[in-house]
Design goal:
heterodimer; A: 340 residues; mainly alpha; MetI-like fold; 13 helices; B: 387 residues; alpha+beta; Rossmann fold; OB fold (Dihydrolipoamide Acetyltransferase, E2P); 6-stranded mixed sheet; 5-stranded antiparallel sheet; globular
Chain lengths: 340, 387
């Protein structure tokens, strides 16, 4: 049965990148003393069990419970009230009142999301922006991570510092700095004019280019670090083996290095793609106002229109949209392993 | 310095075009430096086709560097590496007709057994049916039937080792290099695999060069052994020569156990040397083949050549052979199963090690600690070396 291991204990696989159960490598010579294994298990059992529960507890408290609230609000109707939606559960009013409130919940907000072009286009734009940005990030981040992993040991930590250093400045300040650089009489235009590359200032700000620049700049460390981690721990003997067996350097890269770095690629892509889909600040400050990403739409519903239910429904759909591909990916991977 | 240094010199003086007697692999004055450290120092060595050659030495002696230069992972700073008469010292690793089996196997973790073995064949643009045939052949050779679809992390250590071997043999290299191929296996499995390796090498008639720090392994598998120290070859010889006729004191002490008795050469007559020592009185030893240049020498005797008895050896009565006889007390007895080792404290205070095979299951006459014994050995059992 899935989820139950041989020793009859429950193993909750993490929802996202859960490690599927691996087939144990056969041993040449099993020297396993029963007494030894048992005592080892006794020592490690308790802290291990707590450590296994802690992430789920965290998930429950800070994700599932708040998500329950959001889900409930998304099924409510907007109202001029405090808070601005009905129905509201009041546990003091008794069972009948709760039943009445439950009956008032409806899927109207979700119907609105599907029927109104604004939302569909927002979702689409978010996904498109995220796909393009992630692709650019991968193309830029991979060579950087690859170069870092091949540096001599002591230079690797320096390179790592250089990647992390931007985090020491507030994210917002860095985005505002980009506004300064990109604006009409900003650093970029001044430089271009001084070098006579352009004859008149170019409009950079409030364009998609500026937005992509901002996103790539902000998310690059999240792409580089997981890639670097997988590339750095790769056994250099594998490349030697590849070249010994007749693979040129580029062949060895595509046949050995790249496939082995795919877990890092996956982690980097997820780490960038998911937050970019919901990104609000960068498109709001750097992109034009003609089309909005879903984060901006959500902000608009919540703060400008004060329509909490629609905003909540937007958030719920966004979550489902992001979760679905990950679950499918996870399921496929697990099936592949089980098929072996 | 080396045993066969003299014949090699004579080969080198011949014109290079007389390639009839040319060895398959000739390493000629190869030097490799890493910064200020010289890993391999003007090393020359010939390896014949079909030979199983072992490079033996302590860690850091340069044996792995030499192997990596043969594979192409390091480029020599000086010297030539001739394979079949062609200098390959500067040829990139992927263009050499040489394959290597790596110490930790370096199997591609994302490829299954079949694809690991086929990796080199695909790079050679071999047509698909031929690849399938060759892989099947290698799978049978390495006894990997039924494991073709497994990934490396689903294999045991012994299975991984066999995949690595199959992968390195698949391209049918002119020379197979093996870098400590059995170091990761446990003792029993290692001994079995050593046997399989020699058998395989004889059957394929391929040239194998193995690097190892394990003398027993080198002696078991190799036809010839080259002992390296500090980037130089100290001796190149068959396992027997290496053990019974070490070329230097360092080799004698590096290979196996040995008693080393220092002394002065007193006289030499009728191929018998008389040596006076502080530790063991006067020793009569056979004259070495190479003439001695110094009179401060040492006598080396392997422990198993030292016999113990309660009285002097009986054969002395015949008077034909002058026997070396030393009196002492047994101080330590170690029963190791097949053999028992003894430490005898001689009356001079020196310790002499002896070992005897346990040829009978019930040995009423076994020696025990604090027993007085006579340790004896013949002059032919002594190896005389310069200090």
């Amino acid at each position: 049965m899935r989820g139950v291991s041989k020793d009859g204990r429950w193993h909750l696989w993490p929802i996202l990148r859960g490690s599927p159960p691996r087939r144990r490598a056969p041993q040449d010579d099993v020297r396993c003393w029963k007494g030894k294994t048992v005592s080892a298990r006794r020592i490690f059992a308790r802290p291990a069990r707590f450590a296994a529960i802690a992430p789920y507890l965290w998930m429950l408290l800070f994700f599932l419970v708040p998500f329950g609230f959001v889900l409930k609000i998304s099924l409510s109707q907007t109202a001029i009230a405090q808070p601005p939606y009905v129905p509201q559960f009041d546990l003091t009013q008794g069972w009948a009142a709760i039943q009445a409130a439950l009956a008032e919940l409806s899927l109207d907000n979700f119907k609105l999301l599907i029927s109104d072009n604004l939302y569909v286009l927002s979702y689409l734009r978010s996904v498109v922006v995220a796909v393009i940005s992630t692709a650019i990030l991968l193309v830029i981040g991979y060579p950087i991570a690859y170069g870092m992993a091949r540096l001599p040991r002591r230079w690797q930590s320096v390179a790592m510092m250089l990647v992390i250093v931007p985090f020491w400045t507030s994210f917002l300040i860095r985005i505002y700095a980009w506004i300064n650089i990109l604006q009409h009489d900003g650093l970029l235009n001044k430089t271009l004019l001084a070098l006579h590359i352009v004859s008149a200032p170019v409009v950079w700000l409030s364009t998609d280019s500026a937005m992509y620049l901002g996103i790539v700049y902000s998310y690059l460390p999240f792409m580089i670090l997981p890639l670097y981690a997988t590339l750095a721990k790769m056994d250099p003997a594998l490349l030697e083996a590849a070249s010994d067996l007749g693979a040129s350097r580029s062949k060895a890269f595509w046949l050995v290095t790249f496939p082995l770095s795919l877990p890092g690629v996956g982690a980097g892509v997820l780490l960038c793609f998911i937050p970019i889909v919901g990104e609000f600040v960068i498109p709001d400050l750097l992109a034009g106002s003609d089309s909005m990403m879903i984060g901006q739409t959500l902000w608009l519903e919540f703060f400008t229109n004060k329509d909490w239910p629609v905003a909540s429904a937007t958030a719920v759909v966004l979550l489902v949209l992001l979760l679905a591909p990950m679950l499918i990916y996870d399921r496929l991977q697990r099936r592949q392993l089980e098929a072996r | 310095m080396t045993e066969d240094a003299t014949p090699k010199e004579s080969v080198r003086t011949e014109p290079p075009l007389a390639a009839v007697d040319m060895p398959l692999l000739r390493i000629d004055g190869v030097t490799k430096r890493f910064g200020g450290f010289t890993a391999v120092d003007k090393l020359s060595l010939d390896i014949r086709a079909g030979e199983f050659f072992a490079l033996l030495g302590p860690s850091g002696c340069g044996k792995t560097t030499l192997l990596r230069m043969l594979a192409g992972f390091e480029t020599p700073d000086a010297g030539r590496i001739l394979l079949d008469g062609r200098d390959i010292a500067q040829v990139l690793p992927h263009q050499r007709p040489v394959n290597m089996m790596f110490q930790n196997y370096a199997l591609f973790p994302h490829l299954n057994v079949r694809d690991n073995i086929a990796f080199g064949l695909k790079r050679a643009n071999m047509p698909r049916p031929e690849i399938d045939a060759r892989v099947a052949e290698m799978v049978a050779l390495a006894k990997l039937e039924g494991l073709e679809k497994r990934k490396p992390d689903q294999l045991s250590g012994g299975q991984k080792q066999r995949v690595a071997l199959a992968r390195s043999l698949a391209r049918r290299p002119q020379v197979l290099l093996l870098d400590e191929p059995l170091a990761a296996l446990d003792k029993k499995l290692r001994e079995n695999t050593q046997g399989e390796l020699t058998e395989l090498q004889r059957r394929l008639g391929m040239t194998f060069i193995i690097v190892t720090h394990d003398q027993e392994e080198a002696m078991t598998v190799a036809d010839r052994i080259g002992v390296m120290d500090s980037g130089r070859l100290e001796q190149v010889a068959t396992p027997r020569q290496l053990y019974e006729a070490p070329a230097s004191r360092w080799i004698a002490e590096f290979v196996g156990d040995i008693n080393m008795i220092e002394g002065q050469l007193e006289s030499s007559e009728d191929h018998r040397l008389t040596i006076s020592t502080r530790d063991a009185g006067t020793i009569v030893a056979a004259e070495p083949r190479q003439p001695l240049t110094k009179t401060t020498i040492c006598v080396a005797i392997r422990p198993e050549k030292v016999k113990l008895s309660r009285r002097g050896p009986v054969s002395d009565a015949a008077g034909a052979i002058p026997m070396n006889r030393l009196e002492g007390v047994v101080t330590e007895v170690n029963y190791l199963g097949g053999v028992t080792t003894y430490k005898v404290k001689l009356d001079t205070g020196a310790i002499l090690r002896a070992s005897m095979a346990n040829t009978a299951r019930l040995d009423m006459n076994a020696y025990s600690a604090s027993q007085r014994v006579t340790a004896w050995f013949t002059p032919d059992d002594c190896v005389v070396l310069e200090q």
